[in-house]
Amino acid sequence: MPENRKISIVAPCYNEEAVLPELFQRLGAVAAGWGMEYEIICVDDGSRDRTWELLKQQHDADPHWCSLSFARNFGHQVAISAGLYHASGDAVVVMDADLQDPPEQIARLIEKWREGYDVVFAIRQKRKENFLKRFCYWAFYRLMSQLVSFEIPLDTGDFCLMDRRIVKWLNAMPERNRFVRGLRAWSGFRQTGLVYERDARAAGNAKYDFFKLLKLARDGIFSFSTVPLTLMAQVGMWISFFSFLGILWTLSTKMFSGFFSRHGFPPVQGFTTIVIVILFLGGIQMMSLGILGEYIGRIYEEVKRRPLWIIQDNAGIEPKIPDLPENPAKAGSGGQL
Ligand code: UDP
Ligand code: MG
Fold first, then answer.
1. Ligand 1 shell residues, CB under 6 Å
2. Which residues pair with 52 in a beta bridge?
3. What confidence score (pLDDT) does residue 267 get?
4. Spans of the chain, pLDDT less than 50
5. For the chain, domain boundaries
6. HSE toward the beta carbon, residue 123, CA cutoff 13 A
7. Fold entry, domain 7-207+307-335
C-alpha cells in the first residue's frame, strides 16, 4: 500500500532567504495531507545570504526538513543531482524553492504515481514571465525535440515526481554537464505529464541570469545530440560544392578571358569577392570550431572525473561522497543492468 511508502522532496536554493519562510509554511502545510512519510531535502547551492541559517533553523524546528550546503555555487542542475543522490524516498519530487512550482500540485503528482507511473512531470501551461523569456523557452524546447533521438516532452521543466527505480538510474549517470529533465526523458519508463500554471516567483529575484540559462540550453542540446556535428559536415560539404563551382568559373574566365569578354563577362576585378569569400568561410570555420569545442570541452569535463559537488555542511542528513556512478544493479533497482 502506498501509505507505508516514503516520499522525498528536493528543493535547490540559491540566495533564497526572501522566499524560504513561505516555502516552509506552504510546503509543510501540504505535506501533512499526503498521508505518508516524507522528507524535504533543501540543497543550499553556495548561497551568500541567510539561506543556510534559515535551513538549519527549520531542521531544528521540524526534522522532516534536512539540508546540505555546497562549498560554493555549483549550479541548479548539480544541486538537484545532489538532492536526488541523497534522497531516500520511494519517490522523489524535484521542485524550485522559489514557489514557482506550487507545492499544492504535489498531491496531484503523487496521485498519478499511485496509479503506477514512474515519472510524472508537470507541463507549464502558462508562464508568468516576460515575453522574451517565454519565447526563448518556447523555441528552445521545440529545437531540442527536433535534435534529440528520443521523445522529450515540450514545456516541462525540472518540476516532477520520479519513482526510486528511475532515480537510481539517474544517480548512476556519471556525466558532469547535467540536464536533469533531459536525462529523465532519456531514461524512459512509464512517463506522464500533468498540466499546471507556473506561478511567478514568490519573492526575491531570479537566480538564473542570461548566461546560466544559455549554459543550460547548451547542455540540453550538446549533451543529447550530435546533430550539430552532422550539420557542420553538411554545411562544409555544400560550401565545398559551391566553392568548386566558383573555382571552375574563375579558372575558366582566366583561361578563356577573350571568349568571356566577347560574351559580356569582362575579367572580374576580384578584390571584393575575395574579401567576402574569406570572411564568409572564416565565419563558418570559426563556428564549426566552436561547435567542435563544445563537444571537446564536454569530453574534457568527463575525463577529469572530479566530484560533481562538494558539501561543506549538513543538517539532518549524512553527506555522501559522490563516487558516481553508483551501480544501480547493486543498489537493487530491479536488476535491469
Ligand atoms: N538555483 C540554484 N543554483 C543556481 C541558480 C538557481 O540552486 O545557481 C535555484 C534557485 O534557488 C531556484 C531554482 O534554482 O530554487 C530556479 O532558479 P530561478 O528561480 O532563479 O530560475 P527561473 O525560475 O528564473 O528559471
Ligand atoms: Mg524561478
1. 12-14, 16, 45, 73, 75-76, 79, 96-98, 100, 201, 206-208
2. none
3. 66
4. 1, 328-337
5. 7-207+307-335, 227-304
6. 12
7. Spore Coat Polysaccharide Biosynthesis Protein SpsA; Chain A (3.90.550)
